[in-house]
Amino acid sequence: MNSFDAFKDPKLCRALLDRLLAEADQPLRFMEVCGTHTVSIFQSGLRSLLPATITHVTGPGCPVCVTHESEVACFLELAKRDDVIIATFGDLMRVPGPKGKSLKTAQADGARVEIVYSPIDALAVAAANPGRTVVFLGVGFETTAPAVAATIRLAREQNLKNFRVLCFHKLVPPALEALLADPETNIDAFILPGHVSAIIGAAPYAFLADRYHVPSVITGFEPLDILSALLEIVAMRKSGQPAVVNAYTRVVADSGNPVARAVMDEVFVPVDALWRGLGLLPGSGLVIREAFADFDAMRLPGVTLPDAPPLAGCRCGEVLKGKMAPNECPLFDKACTPATPVGPCMVSTEGGCAAFYKYKLDL
Ligand code: SF4
In which family does this protein belong, per the annotation (predicted)? Predict the structure, then answer.
């Protein structure tokens, strides 16, 4: 048995589930804000075993899914340029943009798009192609932003003049605040993202309990982690003492990772940012600081955020706010499947619609 197996132990899971069935005697609508939690809750079968009083809602925890329509249109425009090579993580390749175009179709139309496994790999692409500008697509939450910031710093150290980042990074706490400020979301509790919390720690979530009285637990991704978090939430609701609890102490320090935050702060600065479905949220995105302007793809001549309408018929915006379950979308499993995705929530493996589709027997 490895150390992860211990967090899947069937006997312990059964015991925690029995406790949850006995103790969860009030309605509880909880949201998880991490695509890995979404998948884990389905994959482990937990969703179908939860007490009838507990409703699981997926939130805006998939970075590809929350990338705004205008941001997708922006990088698709950039991909058309002969002097540009786009470097990206593979999960952005099939995200649909205006007129059904994607990086995949752009590639078929002749655009040079390189899939990389780390932002640092994009530096090698830039070094090998001095006659073109290599633009890395900076999409992701606090989890990925530090590595991208460190890559920009490295590009400067290497004196790479043809490397840029299109910075669409987003910050999780402002999105949670926007969800709670919306009276229609009806969220009673949050399971908070383990990976993001490893960077930011617990303090940035304090407002959830202090201002909104919503109990929240930072937890891991194994069944025992999730069941323990739900028991903690049920206990906090019963006691009437909501708090932000770090139950993932084997990975997350309460203070987060100060080294990662320092490089993020050195290279990026928070700004208001667009989110798919949630709109413009104050202080929820990162842009590249003036000191690193030479590495900012938004400062290339002619690059703008174009207006782009929501994808026709796609309800990703409501899914990301927890206002609609993916299988309530009229296109789910009809026009929209993983083979024929209409929206990003069906494209990304961590998207709510893709998880619902893959595990639909478990709905
Ligand atoms: Fe969009 Fe497809 Fe999800 Fe509907 S099922 S919300 S069309 S991704």
Answer: Belongs to the HypD family.
